[in-house]
Design goal:
With 540 residues, this protein is an alpha/beta fold. It has 21 helices and 17 strands. It folds into three domains: 264 residues, 2-enoyl-CoA Hydratase, Chain A, domain 1 (Alpha-Beta Complex), CATH 3.90.226.10; 224 residues, 2-enoyl-CoA Hydratase, Chain A, domain 1 (Alpha-Beta Complex); 35 residues, no CATH class. It binds coenzyme A (COA). Coenzyme A (COA) binds next to strand 7.
């Protein structure tokens, strides 16, 4: 367990003092290891973004269509960033035939309004949907709902990727959920605008039809429940794409679309004009002061993260590099030190931090519960820094009721009325993941560092447990093989790349941009007014 060291006790707040020796062998080795790990992720990302067949790109451009990324650039306010999410979705699946899962999602500014953008990438299998494409689309809608953000759909898709139909069509969180979500967003008065910039076939036709306002591009945009070949097969009618569901048909005959655009650029301009007439809702008021840089360089984090999670990460050192002025008003500093709680500022925003500093015991769970309640009662967003091996096990702790104390922390986190932003900076194991606002607890955003690991337990423990269950007089050689195999599988399945490919998170981020990511996430979350605090029944 790491202890806090203060630089000084300033008038207003404690300033964290580092104890890192930048020249130590350990720091240098960690630094090198983590930088190369981060570079590997960046290389994969660059490759994913550029991995397109030249002929397909040419065909796309020859139709006068812009690429999905170019469309987003033109849609958002000039020289503002696009906060892209889950860019490595579907990585290492489907023979890597679905880079980014064939869809770009994220948040950008349109006339200063933080807006969710969902853009099909028609250069990836005609913009069709596999399971991860749907997950990414649904997650974008969830973000719009949870944070009260308008949403724009840039539609250019052949609908369901037919060979995967059993994994994308029938279930609750499959293709149909997109339109269910549109209905729910609409009922919440969240503006939705669709621009049809290519194919919009079968169920996909409901995307523009269920949006508040829609735009279609002449010549390339088309909408129909069934395309010409199916129409011919079904009813023997011979019809062209334009006659069946082209831009003119839908803007002048069917009324499915509201605005006719000459080309992609024109459509994006119209969309911006539509936004120009939205009323801008005031944001939730959270105290924000002038930004102060941390006292220490953020890239020193590379030298602090231990390649082996067994060694632990000194979270005071991490917090010192994330928060403004490295100032941290710790709460219950001397009590239950396996969890760190306290107030700080990120880019001027007033926030609460819950960070792991070892295993969770009963008293750590109670301390965190108290702190989460404080943040809820004071309307302060909470940042969870996860590096958790789980709750303490054993007779002594079970008898003391660790399950009911862990339950209180889970209860408090689940019902928190304030935004929760989770960063997995190290391990995320077992029920520790639940108590620390893991994905199931609906944090507004959840990101992983490249070194992060997530799993029900570590590979070594899992191999011990599984071998002990399965072992029935088997030879020890067989056990060793089995352990090795389980270990390997758990290693792969707990990696950040495995997680992000399956959209268990919103993306892997370079640790050195964590401050910016947190500030953006908080700013986005403030679009939804915080409800009144509510709690469930705490088992005492
Ligand atoms: N399911 C599976 N694969 C599909 C697909 C679908 N619905 N739609 C397109 N593809 C594949 C194509 O087979 C092709 O794969 P390949 O690169 O391995 O050869 C790739 O996506 C690109 O399709 P292509 O037709 O060459 O591109 P395009 O830009 O000329 O046309 C579409 C794109 C989407 C307009 C056209 O493919 C189409 O109409 N698809 C069928 C749409 C449909 O009926 N969907 C109903 C399902 S809900």
């Amino acid at each position: 367990m790491f202890t806090k060291r203060l630089l000084n006790c300033s008038k207003s707040m404690d300033v964290l003092k580092t104890r890192i020796n930048l020249r130590s062998e350990e720091f240098v080795a960690n630094n090198e290891y983590n930088k190369s790990l981060n570079k590997r992720i960046q290389d994969i990302l660059n490759e994913t973004q550029s991995k397109r067949d030249g002929d397909i790109l040419e065909k796309h451009k020859a139709r006068g269509k812009l690429l999905a990324s170019e469309r987003i650039r033109l849609l958002i306010d000039r020289d503002t960033p696009f906060f892209e999410l889950s860019s490595l979705a579907a990585y290492d699946q489907y023979d890597n035939q679905f880079p980014g899962a064939g869809i770009i999602t994220g948040i950008g500014l349109i006339h200063g309004m933080e807006t969710v953008i969902v853009a099909n990438d028609a250069t990836v299998k005609g913009g069709t949907y596999v399971n991860e494409t749907i997950k990414k689309h649904l997650r974008a809608q969830e973000i719009a709902l949870q944070n009260n953000l308008p949403i724009v759909y840039l539609v250019d898709s052949g609908g369901v990727f037919l060979p995967e139909q059993a994994n994308v069509y029938p279930d609750k969180d499959h293709f149909g959920r997109i339109f269910f979500n549109q209905a729910k967003l609409s009922a919440e008065r969240i503006p939705q605008v669709a621009i049809v910039m290519g194919s919009c076939t079968a169920g996909g036709a409901y995307i523009p039809a269920m949006s508040d306002e829609s735009i279609i591009v002449k010549g390339t945009g088309s909408i129909f429940l069934a395309g010409p070949p199916l129409v011919k097969a079904a009813i023997g009618e011979v019809v062209t794409v334009e006659e069946l569901g082209g831009a003119v048909v839908h803007t002048s005959i069917s009324g499915v679309v509201d605005h006719l655009a000459d080309n992609d650029e024109d459509a994006l301009r119209i969309c911006r004009d539509v936004f120009d007439h939205f009323n801008k809702n005031p944001k939730q008021n959270v105290d924000r002061i002038e930004i102060e840089e941390p006292l220490y360089l953020i890239d020193e984090i590379y030298g602090i993260i231990q390649p082996s999670l067994k060694k632990g990460i000194d979270m005071y050192e991490i917090i010192a590099r994330l928060v403004d002025g490295s100032k941290f008003q710790e709460f219950k500093a001397n009590y239950a030190q396996s969890i760190i709680t306290g107030f700080a500022r990120i880019m001027g925003y007033n926030i609460g931090i819950v960070a792991n500093n070892g295993i969770l015991f009963s008293e750590s769970a109670l301390k965190a519960t108290h702190f989460i309640e404080l943040c809820c009662s004071r309307s302060i967003p909470i940042v969870f820094l996860q590096n958790i091996a789980g709750f303490m096990v054993g007779k002594e702790y079970e008898h003391k009721g660790i399950a009911k104390d862990g339950a209180k922390m889970i209860q408090a986190g689940a019902n928190a009325n304030v935004p929760k932003i989770t960063i997995i900076v190290g391990g995320s194991y077992g029920a520790g993941n639940y108590a620390m606002a893991g994905r199931a607890y609906e944090p507004n955003f959840l990101f992983m560092w490249p070194n992060a690991k997530i799993g029900v337990m570590g590979g070594e423990q899992a191999s011990e447990v599984l071998v002990s269950i399965k072992q029935k007089g088997e030879s020890s050689n067989k056990n060793t093989d089995m352990k090795h195999e389980i270990l390997q599988r758990f290693e792969t399945e707990s990696s950040a790349l495995y997680s992000t490919s399956r959209i268990w998170d919103d993306g892997i981020i370079d640790p050195i941009i964590t401050r910016e990511v947190l500030a953006l996430s908080i700013s986005i979350a403030l679009n939804k007014p915080f409800p009144e605090p509510k709690t469930g029944v705490y088992r005492m």
